Amino acid sequence: MSGWVLVAAAAALAVVLVAGLVLAIVRLRRSRRAPMAAGGPTPVPSAPDPGPEGTRRDLRPVGPQRPGGAVTGVLPRDLAGPPGGLALLQLSSQFCADCRASRAVLTDVAGEHPGLTVREVDVAMRPELVRLLGIRRTPTTLVVDPAGVELARHVGVPRRADLLDSLAPWRRTG
User: Fold this and answer.
1) Whole-angstrom distance, CA of residue 72 vs CA of residue 58
2) How far apart are the first and last CA of the chain?
3) Which DSSP category does 45 fall into?
4) What is the pLDDT of residue 140?
5) In terms of Cα–Cα distance, which of 43, 115, 50 is closest to 85?
6) What is the predicted pLDDT for the residue at 14?
């Protein structure tokens, strides 16, 4: 009978360990949620997590997301457009041959339009952007306003005419 007692003790120990693991997972998930404001379902923003050196993890989604819509997230301030202008943000990688061609097109277009700046980000250095923005290929160029909202997206080397068309609604006319 001592064999049955040992089996029962092992089964009871397994049940306790599984219950403890489930409880730990539930507590971890609850602790990761933002605290709720008193009186409403709006989450209270928490302090941004600075993340590893050279990255920022304070990216946040913008309102309800529309499938295929241009607005996918709000970028950190260091990647947003300048005050009163727009930024052409190129997400590239170190060994991307098309990224050099894309950079030339962006620099050419920005040189002809005041208030338009070019910024380049290596996706290996900012993996949180890849995840948040759903970047699948380099180069990917985003048109970003001063608030950090994506206004347009071009995947691959953008054609000059396509880039100018995407900028047209936001360019100031003289």
Assistant:
1) 14
2) 95
3) P
4) 93
5) 115
6) 92
